[in-house]
Amino acid sequence: MGFRCWLLVITFVLSMGFRCELAGAHGRWQLLQSLEAADDGVCTAVVSPQGYECQEYEDPTRKRRRHSGKRQPVLLQHGVLMDGLTWLLNPPQQSLAFVLADNGFDVWITHGRGTRWSRRHESLDTSDPAYWAWSWDELASFDLPATVGFVVRQTGQKLHYVGHSMGTLTALSAFSEGKLVDKIKSAALLTPVADLTYMTTPIGRAAASAFSGEMLGALGVAEFDPKGAVGTNFLESVCAMPGVNCYDLMASFTGPNCCLNDSTVDMYLKYELQPTSVRTLVHFSQSQSVAFRRGVITKYDHGSSAANMAAYGQSSPPEYHMSNIPHHLPLLLSYGGGDMLSDVKDVQLLLNDLSNHDADKLVAQLVKEYAHLDFVMG
After folding, report:
1. Catalytic residue at 339?
2. At 224, is the secondary structure helix, strand, or coil?
3. 305 a catalytic residue
4. What are phi and psi of 308, to 5 degrees?
5. Which of 70, 62, 115 lies closest to 274, judged by CA?
6. What is the pLDDT of residues 65-112, one digit of tens each?
7. What is the separation of C-alpha 323 from the centre of its chain, rounded to a whole number of angstroms?
8. Catalytic option among 143, 339, 346, 353
9. Of 67, 160, 283, 372, which is the active-site residue?
10. What is the pLDDT of residue 241?
């Protein structure tokens, strides 16, 4: 479809052992101010001021000078309604990207398509509905392979992958179709999302049961901006539904996160909650509909046999079979006992699909006190 500029990839390398940590509340305020004013991306606003070397890349399809150095590359992939900033919201000693850099890794971060720093296109404007004609299928089939391939070409090495939330779903979907496996050393999946049968978050269940994505699509809305008029009206309508209490919005959406500090939450609410496509929300609501799916993950359902036939050559969307993930691929599944999006029962369904995985290549870690955002912001 001509899309080439979806992704922005950032690499961090610890600069000569020098570091500069945030200086309490005043330092955090300065960070907020620089991010507010920055047009050049996360490197200028967040990373370089901490004393780290940082480079930004646009369009992984173009040839670039090979990245120098022998550090082991690690790719960090954020979840839905987030961007790469999610890995950098805490001070350096508490943010995974900085911690990995301090421990000798070459850290790469992506901004998914449609987010603040990844909104350009070679022919379409973001006001064009065609720009938003994608779901997480396209992220798994095109964006993630393009990004992983770019990092491998730049570094000359296989990489370790860390995904959070939708960053786990896209990776699992790609792995199940044999993609990326030859380029990945291991995958750490934080709050792994595959089946959503037992999702208990009140906002998520209310939104899915109302088929909010389909309703928005019927109104001609292609972009879902949670901070825009559509997102605000949507949230107000969901919060007005019986049984939904949005007094503590974050807990209502993610579960009771145990370990977030107030300043990080303030930064998250101000700078995250990034736009995504309505089609992605439709896809999630399809996955959560227990009426016709349980333990089954499929590609996007285009809504009719004819449309699915045109897209897939069959009347219903093909399934992703997680049991097809190569058994030798090292996987870590880390999930939280308080997570209401990636429920423990749903993770167990995924583990059942992986029951034939090589025993020494699969680790499942339950952190009882964690909820959905503790894994990246705790």
Report:
1. yes
2. strand
3. no
4. -65, -35
5. 115
6. 455 558 899 999 999 989 998 999 888 888 999 999 999 999 999 989
7. 22
8. 339
9. 372
10. 73
